[in-house]
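sanity check this record:
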Amino acid sequence: MKTSFISCSIFILSIFISCHTIAAAKSSVQVSLTWTYKNFPLKIQVYKVTPAKTAFISETRIVKDLKSAPIEDKITAPIKVEIDSSYPAVLVVENNTDKDAYFFAVPHEVHPVSASAGHFFECLCIGRLYKVPKKSVWYRIVRININSSFQDVKKFDIEHQIIGKTEAEANGPEKDRLYNY
């Protein structure tokens, strides 16, 4: 009886230590955000959220310049996201032209497709048309979530197609889709 109690205790302790070791060695995945453009001359850049800013996911605003946006460093490499966590970022479109620009994002594609299971990207492909006024900066705070059921993939790409619209389209047939800031 005493021997089986000790054996059982050692077994439970070894499971506890194994689980603790696995939790301590949390793995991560590299996520690249890519964009293809059709009829949209401006480019989307990705930035870190400034630490002084409380990141309200899906916050979308127009500001006068980059200094007024809640951004820190530009992200040019894949984003490292730990399994069972999330990573907020800021998408930015800078419009230095003399014309307003309009765009929407087609629902994203994931490459490889096996990476589709276990992640959720709170992004900009929500069926809305966005306006980037002339001489201004548009931004949207997004978040990449990787849950514990994520497939065994070390790196994947999330690609959005960005489709430009004319002012006539945005104020005509597309008017109901225009995002209200």
